[in-house]
Design brief:
The chain is of the alpha/beta class and about 250 residues long. Helices cover about 50% and strands about 10% of the residues. Strands 2-1-3-4-5 form a 5-stranded parallel β-sheet, sandwiched between helices. α3 (about 35-45) crosses α4 (about 50-55). The chain is elongated. It holds the Pfam family HTH_6. This is Transcriptional regulator.
C-alpha cells in the first residue's frame, strides 16, 4: 500500500477537522514536499494540532514521518503531468532548494558566527564531500577568512595535530558514516572542539554523536535516483552560508 492509498483507506476515520486536512492533502499532494505543518494547517483552514492528529490517524508518529512518506511517494510512485526529462530534473532540483527553507535559522547563524570567531577554522570532507568543503574553504578565502582544508582521509588525520578545543571544525559527509570519522578524526574523540559541526544529509548519521552540532540538509530521498546529484544541495547550502557571512562582515 502506497502513501495515497493509505490516506484514502482511512477516509471513514477522520474527524471533521481531519477531513479538511484530507481534502487539502489529496488535492495538493505535491506541496507536501516543501510545506511545513503550519503552512498546511493555514491552507487547510485548520490547526497544527489537527494536521498532527491527521498524521497519527494514518499511523505516523508525527508530521515528520508523514512528510518523509509523502516525499518518498512523490518521487517513486506519483505520476506528474510532464514526462519531459528536463521538467523532471528541474522539479527535483527546485524541490531540493525549497526544502532548504525548512532549516533551523539558529543553527545556521550559530555556524556562521563560529566561522567568524578569531580561533582557527578547519574544514574537512572526503570523496565527493570534499567538493563543498573545498568550496567553503576557497569562498572564505575570497572574503578574507583563513581556514585549513583537508580533502582526504590522510590529510584529515593530520588535521588532528593542529586542532585545539577552542577551534572550529566543520566536516561535510553525505552519509555521516562513523567509519570515515574513525579513520581520520578519531584522535579528537575525547577533545573535540566545542564548535564542531557535522553537515550531512542523513538525519541518522552515526558520527553525529561526536560533534557538538549537526546540520541535516535535505536530499536523502533522492540518494537512489541517478537523475539528481545530491551534492548540489550541499554546494547551494555553502553558497548561502558564504553570503550570510559576507553580510555579517559588511
Amino acid at each position: 500500500m502506497n502513501f495515497l492509498e493509505n490516506i484514502e483507506l482511512h477516509e471513514a476515520d477522520y474527524s471533521k477537522t481531519e477531513w479538511k486536512v484530507y481534502q487539502y492533502v489529496t488535492k495538493n499532494i505535491e506541496t507536501l514536499e516543501t510545506f511545513t505543518i503550519t503552512k498546511i494547517a493555514e491552507l487547510s483552514h485548520t490547526s497544527t494540532s489537527a494536521v498532527l492528529r491527521f498524521c497519527q490517524t494514518l499511523g505516523y508518529k508525527g508530521f515528520k514521518d508523514f512528510r518523509y512518506a509523502a516525499i518518498d511517494y512523490l518521487h517513486h510512485y506519483y505520476k506528474r503531468d510532464s514526462a519531459d526529462i528536463l521538467d523532471q530534473m528541474t522539479d527535483n532540483y527546485t524541490s531540493l532548494i525549497n526544502q532548504i527553507r525548512n532549516l533551523n535559522r539558529d543553527d545556521i547563524n550559530r555556524l556562521s558566527q563560529a566561522i567568524l570567531t578569531p580561533e582557527k577554522l578547519h574544514i574537512f570532507g572526503i570523496y565527493l564531500s570534499s567538493l563543498p568543503a573545498k568550496y567553503l574553504h576557497m569562498g572564505l578565502q575570497n572574503i578574507g577568512i583563513a581556514s585549513h582544508f583537508a580533502g582526504d582521509l590522510n590529510s584529515g588525520s593530520h588535521l588532528t595535530n593542529i586542532i585545539s578545543e577552542e577551534d572550529t571544525l566543520i566536516m561535510f559527509s553525505v552519509a555521516g558514516s562513523i567509519s570515515n570519522y574513525k579513520r581520520s578524526l578519531s584522535a579528537l574523540q575525547n577533545n573535540m572542539p566545542k564548535n564542531s559541526y557535522l553537515i550531512t544529509l542523513n538525519e541518522k548519521a552515526t558520527s553525529a554523536k561526536y560533534f557538538g552540532h549537526t546540520i541535516v540538509l535535505p536530499g536523502s530521498v533522492f540518494s537512489q535516483q541517478s537523475i539528481v546529484d545530491i551534492q548540489s544541495v550541499t554546494i547551494i547550502f555553502v553558497e548561502i552560508l558564504l553570503n550570510l557571512i559576507h553580510e555579517k562582515l559588511g
